[in-house]
Amino acid sequence: MANPKYLTEADHQRVSAAVAEAELLSSGEIVTILADRSDGYTDVALAWSALVALLALAALAIAPDFAMGLYDRLLADWGHEWTPRMILSLALGVATIKFAAMMLLQLWQPLKFFLVPAPIRTLRVHDRAQRAFRIGAERRTTGRTGILIYLSMREHRAEIVADEAIATKVDPGVWGDAMSAMLAELRQGRTADAMIAAVGQVGAVLAAHVPRREGDINELPDRLIEV
């Protein structure tokens, strides 16, 4: 299934223009990425399904008469006796049905992402941002002045990752203003404005710490990457 598009072509142009403007006073190179999600979380979905199956088995162990009676009423012949093999088969059937049902429920994406614990979402977004930075910005500029603004929509998480020349000069806490500006716009449903606000804040920090050098050229694309 294709990822949804969050921005129009006009929005893309606005973000690209904001990046170009922010780089005018700095040697920094800003890369922007907007992701639908940072992970598929299949492992988390499997874990929830396994937990539901185990809980079903626990319930069967605590109150076996209910499940066995239901089986008798729906499927079994009258007057049969429960053998160990039949009991184990019943347990396997119950666990399989519960596991499959939970997996199917999690095909509904809002539920799937709701069930992903917040620390896992944060870690996966961080890891994805780091990978994107290594591919798209790290050590790809002459002065190692690349910086990535990464926004992951389904996780409601954002990351700012800076290359060596910037990271050694700027305390990580400085990016808090950019994150706050981005979140303020996101809460109003203005995704493009959120990215533009972050770009503006990051550009101001870059201008203060890595001012534009004479003969500086644009080494990384200004366009927003939407994945």
Overview of this protein structure:
A 4-stranded mixed β-sheet has the order 3-2-1-4, with helices on both faces. Helix content is about 55%, strand content about 10%. It is built from 9 helices and 4 strands. It starts with 8 loop residues before the first helix and ends with a strand. It is of the alpha/beta class and about 230 residues long. The protein has 2 domains: about 10-40 and about 115-225, Diaminopimelate Epimerase, Chain A, domain 1, CATH 3.10.310; about 40-115, no CATH class. The model has no long low-confidence stretch (mean pLDDT about 85). Helix 1 runs parallel beside helix 9 and helix 8 (about 175-185) runs antiparallel to helix 9.
- Helix-and-strand structural type: alpha/beta
Number of strands: 4
Low-confidence stretches: none
Domain module count:
2
What pattern of helices and strands is seen along the backbone? Answer: HEHHHHHEEHHHE
Our Rg estimate from Cα atoms comes to 26 Å
Instruction: Round the mean pLDDT to the nearest integer and report it.
Output: 84
Helix content: 55-70%
CATH class of the largest domain: Alpha Beta
CATH topology of the largest domain: Diaminopimelate Epimerase, Chain A, domain 1
Taking the sheet with the most strands, its summary is: 4 strands, mixed
- Give the number of helices: 9
- Tell me the strand order in the biggest sheet: 3-2-1-4
Strand content: 5-15%
Q: What is the rounded distance between the termini?
A: 13 Å
Protein name: TPM domain-containing protein
Domain TPM: 127-204
Pfam families: TPM_phosphatase
Transmembrane segments: 45-66, 87-108
